[in-house]
């Protein structure tokens, strides 16, 4: 056993470690065709993808995008990849999700190769795979994983520069920065801002003025290359839409989100929100980073990963709009740091008692949603009556193993690593916002229904109307706003004059509390076919269409 461990640490089995990483990361490709397209962002970008597939609008999809520039102000790199996938495979959820899943696999492989030692890379890449939230969005056709891949690729190239001092890696980092900007508004700036933070922290650690100036010069080159690469698309959109494009690109998606809780996405925990999210979705990675920062700050890779992580977490923390998805870009950097920490733990002779106490507490907090709810509500009666014995026993086992092997760092570090994976297994599944419109869409195609009408109120704005409806019903779909009459919908308030077909579907937003009044306005042949938390849907045949 001792010889096996020595061979692994010496790198003799690196190829086997790589194969295991590939196998684990590839599991996210399984059943990518699951259920419907997600009701919001996934469908929002699927509509843009079909704009390319159906109309060849590669540069600008504003004419087809829901809310126009609300969606199309986001640059189109992932949309291009999705369009290529859909053109190759066909219009199905699998095709819209495949590019994101592949980019997540490539991100995990990058994390495997960023550290100089493959064993550290193995720890880091498996830990990244074990972050359930990262896994969840690796299987959704949204923009986040794409820019996260390019930021991680930028860290890969700049870490190569730190090891070799070859300027070609600075150029590669600049190109990658430009590609990151093509993925989602300006979140690609996380990369140069992280490199700037690294330059400052590295100066305070090493006090090397020449090295600091070199990093600043590199940063200027990286930003220049990235902006030159990104400029053609940005200039084209500005020339076409002028100030309206700037309003959405900068003021709505950046300034407004930073200064206001856009679309009701504010959180009670305020500035503490993402730190709690890290404890929940990142297991005990945050306390490990805090505890070992001072010891590992002289490690340039650790300091680089920390700098990018620090910039990301500060920016999303001060932003008033708070969404759990904003936490996604920190996970690759956290995984790299934790991999380096585990290797450092393995090299120690003894682990501090503080680590023994804090890790089990954080582990239990991360896996026990019932406990978190009880603490937030200050009511423990339900939790006490219905304790989750599996989680409690797992935490007790974890604590026992850590204490038992605190003087055997190799085994201790191994258990720290293994319980990241166990956390992934024990995590409660998180459901994205979705409904089951796929079956309704199949009905529309089968029975050749030419029109679908969606009734909604002023409570919905044109920018948050569910894009899933557009994706599934396309040009045969029409919005009908009935105003602000949520509770008292009368027959004379329903704009029936818009109806021009004998056979159609009526989709009624469930925010409309008096939905039955709309249904009564149609003929007796109205049949309720489907209902979920978003809509009530009626199929109407041979309706009377003379009502005004």
Q: How would you describe this structure to a colleague?
A:
Strand 4 and strand 5 form a beta hairpin. The longest helix has 33 residues. The protein has three domains: 343 residues, no CATH class; 86 residues; 104 residues. Helix content is 62%, strand content 5%. Helix 16 runs antiparallel to helix 17. 42% of the residues are buried. It has 25 helices and five strands. Strands 2-1-3-5-4 form a five-stranded mixed β-sheet.
Give a quick rundown of the structure.
The chain has 548 residues and is mainly alpha-helical. The protein has 25 helices and five strands.
Q: Secondary-structure element order, as H and E?
A: HHHHHHHHHHHHHHHHHHHHHHHEHEEHEE
Q: Please give the domain count.
A: 3
The end-to-end span amounts to 83 Å
- Report the principal-axis shape: globular
Overall mean confidence score, pLDDT: 86
Q: Report the count of strand segments.
A: 5
Helix and strand arrangement:
Elements: H1 2-10, H2 14-26, H3 41-55, H4 69-72, H5 77-89, H6 93-113, H7 118-130, H8 132-137, H9 144-164, H10 168-181, H11 190-206, H12 209-241, H13 243-259, H14 273-281, H15 285-296, H16 300-318, H17 330-347, H18 353-367, H19 369-377, H20 381-385, H21 389-404, H22 409-426, H23 437-446, E1 451-456, H24 467-473, E2 477-481, E3 504-509, H25 515-520, E4 527-531, E5 535-540
Parallel strand pairs: 1-2, 1-3
Antiparallel strand pairs: 3-5, 4-5
Helix pairs in contact: 2-6, 2-7, 3-5, 3-24, 5-6, 6-7, 6-9, 7-17, 7-22, 9-10, 10-12, 11-12, 11-16, 12-13, 15-17, 16-17, 17-22, 18-21, 21-22, 23-24
């Amino acid at each position: 056993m001792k010889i096996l461990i020595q061979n692994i640490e010496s790198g003799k089995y690196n190829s086997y470690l790589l194969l295991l990483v590939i196998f684990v990361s590839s599991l996210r490709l399984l059943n990518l065709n699951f259920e419907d397209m997600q009701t919001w962002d996934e469908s929002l970008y699927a509509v843009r993808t079909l704009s390319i597939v159906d109309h060849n609008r590669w540069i600008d999809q504003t004419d087809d995008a829901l809310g126009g520039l609300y969606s199309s102000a986001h640059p189109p790199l992932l949309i291009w990849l999705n369009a290529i996938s859909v053109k190759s495979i066909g219009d199905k959820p699998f095709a819209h999700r495949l590019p994101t899943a592949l980019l997540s696999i490539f991100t995990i492989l990058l994390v495997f190769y960023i550290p100089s030692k493959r064993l550290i890379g193995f720890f880091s890449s498996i830990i990244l795979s074990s972050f359930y939230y990262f896994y969840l969005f690796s299987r959704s056709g949204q923009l986040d994983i794409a820019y996260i891949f390019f930021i991680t690729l930028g860290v890969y190239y700049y870490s190569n520069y730190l090891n070799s001092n070859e300027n070609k890696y600075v150029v590669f980092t600049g190109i990658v920065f430009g590609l990151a900007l093509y993925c989602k508004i300006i979140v690609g700036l996380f990369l140069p801002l992280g490199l700037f933070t690294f330059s400052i922290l590295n100066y305070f650690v090493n006090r090397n003025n020449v090295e600091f100036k070199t990093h600043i010069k590199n940063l200027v080159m990286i930003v220049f290359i990235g902006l030159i690469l990104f400029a053609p698309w940005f200039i084209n959109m500005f020339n076409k839409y002028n100030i309206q494009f700037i309003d959405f690109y900068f003021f709505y998606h950046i300034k407004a989100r930073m200064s206001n809780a856009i679309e009701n996405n504010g959180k009670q925990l305020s500035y503490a929100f993402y730190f709690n999210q890290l404890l929940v979705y990142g297991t005990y990675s945050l306390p490990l980073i805090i505890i070992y920062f001072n010891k590992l700050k002289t490690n340039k890779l650790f300091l680089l990963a920390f700098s990018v992580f620090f910039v990301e977490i500060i920016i999303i923390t001060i932003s008033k709009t708070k969404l759990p998805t904003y936490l996604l870009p920190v996970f690759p950097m956290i995984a790299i740091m934790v991999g380096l920490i585990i290797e450092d733990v393995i090299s120690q002779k003894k682990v501090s008692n503080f680590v023994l106490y804090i890790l089990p507490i954080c582990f239990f907090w991360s896996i026990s949603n019932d406990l978190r709810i009880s603490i937030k509500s200050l009511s423990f009666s339900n939790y006490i009556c219905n304790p989750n014995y599996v989680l409690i026993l797992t935490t007790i086992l974890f604590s026992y193993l850590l204490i038992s092997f605190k003087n055997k760092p190799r085994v201790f570090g191994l258990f720290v690593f293994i319980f990241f994976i166990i956390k992934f297994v024990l995590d409660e599944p998180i459901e994205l916002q979705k409904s089951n419109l796929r079956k309704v869409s199949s009905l529309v195609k089968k029975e050749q229904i030419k029109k679908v009408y969606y009734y909604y109120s002023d409570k919905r704005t044109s920018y948050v109307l569910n894009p899933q409806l557009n994706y599934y019903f396309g040009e045969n779909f029409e919005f009908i706003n009935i105003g602000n009459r949520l509770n008292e919908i009368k027959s004379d308030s329903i704009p029936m004059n818009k109806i021009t077909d004998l056979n159609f579907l009526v989709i009624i937003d469930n925010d409309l509390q008096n939905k039955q009044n709309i249904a009564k306005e149609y003929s007796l042949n109205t049949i309720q076919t489907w209902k979920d938390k978003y809509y009530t849907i009626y199929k109407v045949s041979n309706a009377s269409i003379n009502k005004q």
